[in-house]
Write a sequence for this structure.
């Protein structure tokens, strides 16, 4: 088996406007800054792993518009294998319209566009590369059918991680059963389990609920408090604290964590899961030191060599 990481997921172009406050309904507000960025959970996670030095293959779908072509070139510069990045005609690339206020509040509208067209057929076309990978990573921003296909054809070939994001109330039961590791943040865990005010002290309830829904290994991230994990063989959760840092912007921390976790599972197969999570916490902590999403994802050269 190779060390390659296969990611089946989304690409989004982020259009971010910064304004003093959110506009009221019907109001036009003059903002004070605008940025465009490469995003999408699949791409962010894939790029994190690639920047850490992993060999990565990305199965995704972009529009054949100028933004899609630009994104494809960007992925090439990140050393991602783009053989299975599809450029679709007659549809725009996935976009996220984001408004951020001076107080850090934000509202986001995502239009999946080409991401929704990623089909099971596209996944089957990448079957050889997916099955050869030692880790498969999926999220909830690409089509459900494509995600299910990827998990089905990968079962038994290596470790699959499903990041249950963005938050959904009910997850297709096969996804939870097929995923070797199901990873969510506290908000996503609250929605799926129906537990309000999820904290470390009542995290076992969420873990038990996720096991009852069919999960194998569960990870819940808690921002600056780190992450917990539990598995079928060790159902009581273990807490791995985060690094203590002065956060500048936590956007994308979850994606940095997943991409880094995939890296350590693929390249340090002998490490216990707890140690891989500890190292993923360290990489994710690096990503909160800079603003932006992909722009804040660290490179291997930024990380102490002892981590590798
Ligand atoms: P995102 O902001 O991208 O949506 P998320 O909500 O999916 O992130 P979090 O639970 O906030 O994910 O963070 C994921 C991981 O990132 C944490 O487990 C932790 O390792 C790291 N992290 C997040 N925030 C901080 C912080 N303030 N200080 C240190 N580490 C952090």
């Amino acid at each position: 088996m190779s060390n390659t990481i296969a990611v089946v997921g989304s690409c989004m172009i982020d259009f971010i406007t910064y304004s003093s406050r959110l506009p009221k309904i019907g109001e036009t507000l003059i903002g004070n800054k605008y940025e465009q960025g490469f995003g999408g959970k699949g791409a962010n996670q894939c790029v994190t792993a690639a920047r850490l030095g992993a060999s990565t293959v990305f199965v995704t779908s972009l529009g054949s518009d100028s933004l899609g072509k630009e994104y494809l070139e960007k992925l090439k510069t990140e050393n991602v294998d783009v053989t299975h990045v599809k450029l679709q005609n007659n549809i725009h690339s996935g976009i996220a319209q984001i408004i951020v206020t001076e107080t850090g509040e934000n509202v986001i509208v995502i239009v999946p566009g080409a991401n929704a067209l990623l089909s099971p057929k596209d996944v089957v076309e990448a079957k050889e590369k997916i099955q050869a990978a030692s880790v498969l990573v999926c999220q909830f921003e690409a089509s459900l059918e494509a995600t299910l296909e990827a998990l089905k054809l990968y079962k038994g070939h290596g470790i699959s991680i499903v990041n249950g994001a963005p938050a959904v109330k009910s997850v297709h039961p096969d996804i939870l059963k097929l995923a070797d590791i199901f990873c969510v943040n506290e908000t996503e865990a609250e929605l799926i389990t129906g537990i309000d005010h999820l904290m470390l002290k009542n995290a076992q309830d969420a873990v038990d609920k996720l096991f009852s829904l069919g999960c194998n290994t569960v990870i819940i991230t808690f921002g600056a408090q780190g992450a917990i994990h539990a598995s079928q063989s060790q159902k009581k959760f273990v807490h791995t604290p985060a690094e203590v840092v002065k956060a500048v912007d936590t956007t994308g921390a979850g994606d940095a964590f997943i991409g880094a976790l995939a890296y350590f599972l693929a390249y340090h197969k002998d490490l216990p899961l707890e140690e891989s999570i500890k190292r993923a916490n360290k990489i994710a902590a690096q990503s909160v030191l800079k603003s932006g999403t992909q722009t804040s994802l660290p490179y291997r050269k930024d990380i102490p060599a002892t981590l590798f």
Remarks:
- Residues 185, 221-224, 226-227, 242-243, 245, 247, 250-255, 257, 281, 284-285, 288 surround adenosine-5'-triphosphate (CB under 6 Å).
- The radius of gyration is 18 Å.
